[in-house]
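Feature request, filed as a ticket because there's no other form

It would be nice if the structure record came with a short human-readable summary line next to the tokens. Right now we just get the raw output. Example of a typical job, pasted below so the devs can see what we mean:
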Amino acid sequence: MTILTLSIGSNIDAASNIRAALKKLTAHFDGLRCSTIYESQSVGFDGDNFFNLVVLAETNSSLEEVAEFLKQVEDSLGRDRNQQRFSGRTMDIDILLFGEESGTVSGIELPRPEITENAYVLQPLAELLPDAVHPPTGKTYDTLWQEYDKSKQRLWPVATDWADI
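Raw output as currently delivered:
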């Protein structure tokens, strides 16, 4: 089994769309573990706040199969692929890590650069994998989070009671 790490975000009907995405991921992958859900202001454009979290799962699928499944989940939740890069999203699921893969694999840069760039990715990742090492930096995710300039992006936990997931 390969450990898969995903970043999930939404700022359009966020709670409902994240709940729906997590149900689909739970039905498809084994051993799903979720970070805290965090709310943050939109980055790169003026828009509604985002809900974000990181998810760990296990899979026997190839990276290409996983990427295709995730696109289907996004599309099923109304993702508009014709919109601008920095704009509102019903659902955005990015592959952050795929096992020990590193570099550009099947057109996906791994580990994903957003890990060290965005608080809404790094904090929940450090929560789930504090002692894992980020290959490009050689630092643990916990260390990266401790060193991150938290004045760049503010985020706060979202209280949820989603026992049905």
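Something like this underneath would help us a lot:
The chain has five helices and ten strands.
The CA atoms of residues 3 and 72 lie 20 Å apart.
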